[in-house]
Amino acid sequence: MQLTLRKLAPALMVVTLALAGCKTAPTKSSGADATPQAGQQQAPASSPATASTVEFYVAQTQSAPGLVEVSLPDGKLYMQQQPVLTRADLTEAAALVDRQGKNFVGLRFSEAGARKLTEVSTKNVGNMLALVIDRELIAAPRIGEPLNRGVLAFSVSSAQAASEIAAKIRGDAPPPAGAPTAPAPASKP
Distance (Å, rounded) from C-alpha 135 to C-alpha 74? Predict the structure, then answer.
């Protein structure tokens, strides 16, 4: 599997994770390609009729056996080869704006997905949870504490970026060029 960094804005920066005590991996947008993951097949490119592949991987900044190296503009990330959560574990994805005007993508997990998220985050405090959509690394927030509420939110650079990412996660057709960038309403897949 080939990973690339998401190009949504001149500098898509995942700044914070909107969960108590969590931090975000230092990533910046660029066209940098990652090394292919061993043992993984490439998913077909998505089209409006085909939903995006949405996967979450445990990642860290130190190399270890069994992890795949992903090159970033400001360093390297080492990810597990198998996803720990997928789109099937989600019930909602929405573009959100907080009171200070910061843009976020909010995710709600199913009951089973919430249990997985709690288990994965409890075992991996200090590591990162990398969100990959169609082989593009979107965010890699650091897990600061067990995530036991069944929700996850991460900041993005703009309302347009939040809307586009949430739409991809939900499997919506991409908005037409020039479409308004107001936050999308939450919906169930």
Answer: 19
